[in-house]
Amino acid sequence: MNRTPSKNPKGRRLTVNLFIILFLIVGTFVAIKFAKGYRPNLQNRSLSGTGLLSVSSYPKSARVIINDKLTTVTDDKLYLLPGTYTVKIEKDGFHPWIKTLPIKDELVTASDARLFPIITATSPLTFYQVRNATLNTDGTKIAYVLKDSPQGITNGLHIHSLSGNLLGSSNIQIAENSPRDFSQALLIWSPDSSQILTVFIDKTPATKTSKSSEKISSAYLLSTKGMNLRTMSDVTLRLPLIISEWQDQFAKLNLPTINLFPKYMVEILTKNSVNVYFSPDKEKVFYTPTADTSLPENEIAKTLPNINSTPESRNIIKDKTYLFDLKEGTNYFLPFASKSSDFSKDLIVSVSATPSASLSLIRQLKAQTESRLTTNLTWYSNSRQLIVTNQEGVNLVDFDGLNVVNITYVQPLDGFVATSPDGSKLVLLTNINQKPETFNLITFDLK
Question: Where does the chain cross the membrane (predicted)?
Answer without folding.
Answer: 14-35
